[in-house]
Specification:
This protein has 117 residues and is mainly β. The protein has one domain: HesB-like domain (Hypothetical Protein Aq_1857, Chain: A, Sandwich), CATH 2.60.300.12. The protein is built from one helix and nine strands, in the order E-H-E-E-E-E-E-E-E-E. The chain has a six-stranded mixed β-sheet with strand order 4-5-2-3-9-8, covered by helices on one side. A hairpin with a 5-residue loop joins strand 8 and strand 9.
Length: 117
């Protein structure tokens, strides 16, 4: 019998690649107040959920992932949707952007920001 329940000990936080931390460091270079990269999951988009990637400050209920002197934060509501995910940065012909490689997503949209579970 298949169940959607995942034991807490198997719920690993998202990982952040060195490329993502390096790009965030470039964004924050020379800034008087460095910002964290905030990753959130919100309802909506063409597949049911969408990623919201912004710069901001960490709050009390955030998970803070640190590397290379930079911070990536995920709020407690979004965290279960990002279990075992990878936060990366890519540069392609169509542009450069932060991306989420999410093993929990059953499908995603061509835009890369919308997914379903």
């Amino acid at each position: 019998m298949k169940t959607d329940y995942v034991p807490m000990d198997l719920m690993l936080p998202p990982k952040v690649t060195d490329r993502a931390f390096d790009r965030l460091a470039e964004i924050n270079e020379g800034a008087s107040d460095e910002k964290a990269l905030r990753i959130a999951v919100d309802g909506g988009g063409c597949s049911g959920f969408q990623y919201e990637i912004t710069l901001g400050e960490a709050t009390e209920d955030d998970l803070v992932l640190e590397g290379k002197g930079q911070k990536v934060v995920v709020d407690s509501v979004s965290l279960p949707f990002l279990t075992n995910a990878e936060i990366d940065f890519t540069e392609e012909l169509i542009g450069a952007r932060f991306i989420i490689n999410n093993p929990n997503a059953t499908s995603s949209c061509g835009c890369g920001t919308s997914f379903s579970m």
